[in-house]
């Protein structure tokens, strides 16, 4: 569990909507500003869609203040959200479900390899996003759990394959030797393939209480987000871009919207579908997830050049060594951080109008992705 505690400690602040719902911090419609001219605070609150506009021409200053006080008295106070306990609790539930999903059986070698990487720790951000999105629209954790496990299986597969000598050739993952260093390249490839295949089987057979149309939609969504127009597309373009002298922001964004953001987007959308969301809600949550998916990669790029291998639990500086184009390389560290803040704000704007209490985990997860240290 230590692997789960350390990253949380880096963002240990608990947040209260009561603290930030005052006039100073009231949310405004998101406008994407120029990178160098943005110093807006990151909002942890929701605008009130029922709030009536004030006619300043008809009111004195004192009347405006009275009106503000009346409106504030009507606002619902949201209890403080304990993100640390939420994350530990959800991670524990996900770890238990993963442990039960992939059992040791014959042939032992392949299942040992699968479990070695799948149960090696990690933050479990993708499963949490899936569960939080499901609960946001009225679903239950148990309904989303098979899909949550599936996205973690696929994420683990992508890391196992990414670490291979023919790809990133990495020796360290989640603070441990990479899978091929323990089991060999051949078994690592096959174990990744097995996790990918089983992820779809698990969704199809273990999901309960959801009609077949929604399960079919979930399977289609999952396949699309990791295939040749999703995660794989990002991986291929990333590989083909190594060593190129001119890689612009649009090119880099394509890589990371597919390589990193696609599975995060899929995680949220799967949870929303299983929870019974309508198309408009799914669309807004998709936009939220796309923003935090790109945010995740921007922060990853920053950490790669500002943290040590020991702090990250994986090899630091490998993108620089491979001459890969990254956000810090194109924008610099500070402008990359400003870009990350704007992505976080834009993501949270998509949650306006949802129940603030149920949306709190997604807001906290967005902030966690933005402020993590590994």
UniProtKB/TrEMBL annotation:
Pathway: Isoprenoid biosynthesis. Belongs to the FPP/GGPP synthase family. Keywords: Isoprene biosynthesis, Magnesium, Metal-binding, Transferase. Coiled coil: none annotated. One of its GO terms (molecular function) is metal ion binding. GO terms for cellular component: cytoplasm. The keyword Magnesium applies. It comes from Sesamum alatum. It comes from the Eukaryota. Its cofactor is Mg(2+). SUPFAM superfamilies: Terpenoid synthases. CDD domains: Trans_IPPS_HT. This is Geranylgeranyl pyrophosphate synthase, chloroplastic.
């Amino acid at each position: 569990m230590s692997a789960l505690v350390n990253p949380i400690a880096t963002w240990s602040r608990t947040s209260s909507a009561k603290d930030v719902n005052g006039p100073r911090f009231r949310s405004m419609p998101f406008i994407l500003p120029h990178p160098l001219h943005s110093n807006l605070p990151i909002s942890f609150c929701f605008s009130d869609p029922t709030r009536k506009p004030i006619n300043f021409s008809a009111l004195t200053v004192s009347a405006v203040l009275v009106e503000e006080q009346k409106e504030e008295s009507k606002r619902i106070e949201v209890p403080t959200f304990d993100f640390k306990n939420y994350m530990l609790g959800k991670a524990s539930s996900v770890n238990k479900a993963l442990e039960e999903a992939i059992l040791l059986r014959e042939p032992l070698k392949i299942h040992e390899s699968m479990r070695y990487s799948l149960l090696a720790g990690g933050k479990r951000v993708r499963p949490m996003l899936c569960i939080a999105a499901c609960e946001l629209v009225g679903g239950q954790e148990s309904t989303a759990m098979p899909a949550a496990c599936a996205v973690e299986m696929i994420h683990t597969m992508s890391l196992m394959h990414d670490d291979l000598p023919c790809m990133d050739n990495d020796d360290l993952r989640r603070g441990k030797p990479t899978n091929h260093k323990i089991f060999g390249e051949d078994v690592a490839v096959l174990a990744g393939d097995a996790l990918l295949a089983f992820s779809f089987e698990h969704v199809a057979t273990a999901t309960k209480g959801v009609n077949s149309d929604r399960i079919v939609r979930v399977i289609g969504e999952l396949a699309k987000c990791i295939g040749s127009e999703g995660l794989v597309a990002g991986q291929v373009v990333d590989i083909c871009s190594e060593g190129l002298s001119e890689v612009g922001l649009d090119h880099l964004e394509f890589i990371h919207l597919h390589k990193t953001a696609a599975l995060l987007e899929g995680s949220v959308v799967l949870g929303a579908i299983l929870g019974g969301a309508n198309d408009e809600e799914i669309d807004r949550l998709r936009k939220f997830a796309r923003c935090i998916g790109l945010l995740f990669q921007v922060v990853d790029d920053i950490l790669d050049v500002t943290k040590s291998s020991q702090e990250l639990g994986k090899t630091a500086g490998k993108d620089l060594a491979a001459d890969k184009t990254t956000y810090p390389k194109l924008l610099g560290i500070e402008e990359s951080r400003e870009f990350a803040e704007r992505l976080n704000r834009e993501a949270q704007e998509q949650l306006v109008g949802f129940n603030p209490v149920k949306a709190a985990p997604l807001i906290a997860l967005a902030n966690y992705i933005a402020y993590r240290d590994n």
